[in-house]
Amino acid sequence: MAITQINRNEAVKLATEFLQRKGVNVERYKVAAEFRARLNYDDDDTAYILEHADRATLHRLWLEHLPIAYWRVRFFRPLEREEWFVYIRPDGRLIGHWHRVPEEAKGAKLMKAEAQKQAENYIRELGIEPSEWNLIEEDSFERPNRLDWRFTYEHKTFQVAEAKLQMSVFVQGEEAQGYAAWLQVPEDWRFEREYFEAWTDLVVFGLLILLIVSGCFSAVFDWREGAIGFNWRLGIKFASALTPLALLQMLNGIANWWMNYTTTMPIPVFVVVMTMVSGITLLLVFLLLTIVGGFDQWMKVRLPEVPPLSVWLSRRHNDPTLAKTPLSHPAAWRDAVLFGYIVSFAFVGLFSESEVNSWLIRSSFLPAVDFLAWTVWTTVILLALGISWAGTYRRYIRTPQRLLIVLLLLLPAGLIGASSPMDALKEMGEWAAWLFIGAAILYWLGRYVLRGNFYTWALGIALSILLSIAFELLQAPDMFVKAQAFPLPVFYLLPLVSLLRLAAYKTEGFPNMRQEENDQDGYRPSAIQRH
Q1: Are 151 and 135 in contact (CB under 8 A)?
Q2: Residue 224 pLDDT > 70
Q3: How many Å apart are CA 426 and CA 208, to the nearest integer?
Q4: What is the mean pLDDT of residues 367-378?
Q5: Cα dihedral angle (278, 282, 288, 293), rounded to 10 degrees?
Q6: Can you give the pLDDT at residue 304?
Q7: What distance in Å separates the CA atoms of residue 413 and residue 207, rounded to the nearest whole number?
Q8: Beta partners for 172?
Q9: Phi and psi angles of residue 92, each rounded to the nearest 5 degrees, phi first
């Protein structure tokens, strides 16, 4: 089930119709829209809700009072301070609006009773019955040419544990607007949470220090062993191949530029500033990719000298000359493709309906571009981490006993994000289980099954993401977005095409495994070295 049933254009249409009913000449305004997720797991209010509310209470809260996501539509004109913001629920219902006017704008000076009547009529139009709420506070704000009011209400019956449901309505002159609802979390609970989080921050700091020290230690030993060598040509080629993908992501995000536009700035100046910021960001991405792709000597030294899975399962798996490293053997790529497709079918849907995926689908014109880019970044990061971990394990850990010490050092990471002692016990238990079980599985796979084939690890994730995202896009309400699910299978099948090409390529320098097994002289170490 998709999080929202309306797309960007439909949200703009609903917002436009709402302002037209209010008599606003919307044709004189520029329009921008963005999809926002309200659910923030680090927020105190969200944490309290998830800790104390059952499923039925959550459903009612998010459906009737606090939608977890919404469309924010902006109507603005350059060099003018007056703006309109309209908020639309995921199902198309109106949440409210905000009319931003200058401080000195003229308006009525209503008495409290008149202003309260305007506020209650406004929330009644939003589908909220005022009789279900108690007025607990009113504030007036004297402006140069008008009097503004803010009324705060509390629901008579609905609450989550000790947290009361409250809302406020703002009356600007004679115009009611600015409806907002929230849960008033108990102060003692908030204080205890912040106090406990202050101690868990020390854990984050300690792990960061451990990471820096271990990284420096590894870098010094790599330098002494001659593993630190940089190939500028290779790095530039690597960056040149992937940087255009980052450029496509930036171009895809231009639609959301206008939500951050400051109307006091001329549009040409804003465009120039945003273009310069994007250019600098793109340059940093290029430099980072150049650095990552240029350490070929580091990769060669850090990679363990173990044969790929196909070689290991063949009759010649004891031949030490079969492969120098997994990445230098064609069987490594074949293993990666086959394993990646198996994993993609096993984990299809794993990434579907995640918060990030849903946000990308609604906030981008071409979400398939964003998904494809993030798939590439995930693969590159996983490949680099896999190479680094393999080299670290081969040089410094080597034994299960030392691996256990590393896991014990990582165990305090389970406290990160914990907000209470009970939450800490739960998080630590889950983290310890996943850490040790995951380490055992990875150790077994890496040592006895995948045999250091890091293309396999990377494609196992990449192909799973592509297949899952294709299903996610098919659930989008917009046919234009739905159609973007079909190009993704092309990228999904590209490794298979490469695999078939590799199987059919029977030259002396690039033999396939069938030739190796049938012809004892078919594989020549010199050919691998040239490759």
Answers
A1: yes
A2: yes
A3: 23
A4: 84
A5: 160
A6: 57
A7: 7
A8: 148, 175
A9: 100, -5
